[in-house]
Amino acid sequence: MLGLPALSGCLWHTRRVPRAKMPVNVLTATPQQLVQVIDQQYDAISAMFAEVTFTATEGGSLKGSEKTITPFSGVIILSKPESLRVIGFLPVVHTDAFDMASDGSTFKLWIPPKNEAIEGTNTVTQESSNAFENMRPYMFFDSLLIPKIGPGDLMTVTGDSNTVVDPKTKKLVIEPEYLLTVESRQGNSSLLLVHRVIHFSRINLRPSEEDIYDQNGQIQTQALYGPLQAYGTELFPGTITLRWPLEQQQILITIEKLKVNPPVNNDTFRLKIPGSADVRVLH
């Protein structure tokens, strides 16, 4: 190591690399202010009705192939605390491809083209070897409407940045962000269990991504939020991309129309399965 300065003239080589541009305005916030952003956003929405377009993708590098399903339309209805209804329509004919309803504790999924139905609890009590069967409605709900930070939650806030290509200028730009990690202590031990990590853009201090973790510390669901758009007087991400890395599944939700806090009847979240359907129960 001591001989390196004498040899530096022979070893150094300089080459030009693209220069990344830093945003003009980078905002700062305290952890309490970031929590307030989440809490205010959650409190502002008690119910939601959205007309959407779904674009689903299966596969990736682990499977060696990727398949994108033809985009199809649908509706998403949610009501706090955890009621959810998601309906997808078959392209062209516009009949139901699937219909899923959850009251927050149990759910039903009806697939008319196959005359099949699935019923189960929102919380996995018996983990399946089929990773797809471990995906439950709360993952969908918590991605659409980021839950408040609970009084017993532990938090850490760190800074980070991503270098990306600006789609308009095609130049490299730096995107600084805050990472708010929500954890809890396992019993009386010193072990902390990560529940989710919320990414905040330091351009507008709004959530840009939420990572939801499972009991084994693996990312279960990723939600990526697109640029904010105005729907009447409300601002909401124009797109939400839901990723399930372990299953190599992804759904891009493009919001076409959105109504915030419309009147919602409890019957909206009750789904009747036809008696002729083949019903499978998940625990």
Q: Could you characterize the architecture of this molecule?
A:
The chain has 283 residues and is mostly beta strands. The chain has a single domain, classed as outer membrane lipoprotein receptor (LolB), chain A. A hairpin with a 4-residue loop joins β15 and β16. The longest helix is centred in the first third of the chain and has 14 residues.
Features:
283 residues; mainly beta; outer membrane lipoprotein receptor (LolB), chain A; 15-stranded mixed sheet; two-stranded antiparallel sheet; 17 strands
What can be said about this structure in brief?
The protein has 283 residues and is mainly β. The chain is built from three helices and 17 strands.
- Going by helix content, strand content and strand pairing, the class is mainly beta
Q: In angstroms, what is the radius of gyration?
A: 22 Å
H/E series, N to C? HHEEEEEEEHEEEEEEEEEE
Distance between the termini: 61 Å
Task: Determine the fraction of residues in helical runs and give it as a percent range.
Answer: 10-25%
Task: Report the β-strand fraction as a percent range.
Answer: over 45%
* Tally of domains: 1
The largest β sheet comes out as: 15 strands, mixed
| Count of separate DSSP helical elements | 3
Number of beta-strand segments? 17
Low-confidence spans: pLDDT under 50, at least 5 residues? none
Mean pLDDT: 87
Q: Which CATH-level-2 architecture?
A: Clam
Shape: globular
CATH-assigned homologous superfamily: Lipoprotein localisation LolA/LolB/LppX
User: Tell me, what is the CATH class?
Assistant: Mainly Beta
CATH topology: outer membrane lipoprotein receptor (LolB), chain A
